[in-house]
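Take a careful look at the sequence and tokenised backbone pasted below. I need to know what the token row says about the fold.
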Amino acid sequence: MRVLHFRIIALLLLFFVLKIKAQTPEAISRQIFNHLKSKDYAKIDALFDTTGILKLVTYAQQEQYKKDLSEFGSPKELIRIDEEDNGFKKRIAMALQFAAEKQTLYIVFNPKGKIEDLAFDTYTETPFFQLRGYKGFAEVTDLTTSVKTRDGLTLGANIAFGDTSKQKSPLVIFVHGSGPADRDETLGPNKPFRDLAQGLAQQGIASLRYDKRTFAYQYDSKVLNDNLTIYEETVYDAVDAVKTARLFSFIDLNRIYIVGHSQGAMCAPKIAELCPEIKGIVMMAAPVTNLVDIIPQQVEYIAMLNDTISNAEQMQITSVKWMVDKIKSPSLSDKTPKGMLMGASAHYWKSVLNYNQAATAKGLKIPVFIMNGARDYQVPEKEFNAWKKELAGKPNVQFMLYPKLNHLFLEGDRRSEPAEYEIPGHIPQYVIDDLAKFIK
């Protein structure tokens, strides 16, 4: 009887393994293709995650894909399926042949195996980021790991490194800009942090990049509550990432650097102040002006791209300035609705207003490298010049301005605008060389 009992358990386990295996994102994607062919949209809609805040976006996505299909017709052929796994979510690209054209259907699956995002886009032979080699073409190892935070969260991460057989490697920890961002700081087809990780690893410098908590837990109201400050959002997780570095025997713990971008660069001085183990910081596109005052400037710049401001654009500018005044008001209250404060809580904005990145940077004795693109409209050249004025005469600080680069440190030859971020590109070799020279 005992043998029979174990056989039944084994068969049950086999059944569950097969069942789980059948429900991989690729398998579900093939089911979706069949549903698209038969116009059985209700079965596709049933695959969406509709819990929590996702309720607000699911309906719009469902309506949009059906609207697109009314234009394309039913798909004739599933050409291929490509998959990208960042350790937290899975992204599928289904290349579909319609009667008159090809289209790519992008689907994002969350850890529950539910659809979080589904949308058609222009067909391309390379639907995901394709990394080309940098100088040296050395082999790079890119391992999945995780960062454990002081409040018990797990942030998916990658550690990239080259040849570590001869000596220990210095390490850089990447710190993201504002908003939800994955470990590669993905924006459209571009992945700046993955570029930098690849290029630095080829020059003997390891790196750790991790999912920002506002990305990994973006639908968890218990994590992203009204008590969130810029410290929980950015600073503390970067400090905790240093602890992860101790787990790897090939890392030189006496040479750990912070490489922050945008808001991450703004916070880099505070991260270094709180973490004595940091050897130096790199500030890429760091605003010296308070973040609250930078936002209206960005909105006005975008509105003026066609050299005129429409009534709708003027209303948006006025609305943003009104909210900024609310945020900066001495009467700002924790009871003020977030809708009146650009979507963040009063508690969050108070932490931003009370942080002075220039004063914090002045107090640092470690090496500081401030980099900016001259074509950056989000953190323009005047911010770079303000840093030079604030930190004038400090021997531990160096500066570099790049004439052709935008906010993502990608090259261009015209006035920068948001649409430019949708053009695939890579961070130039000379930026990586400058970073490597500073770190070495």
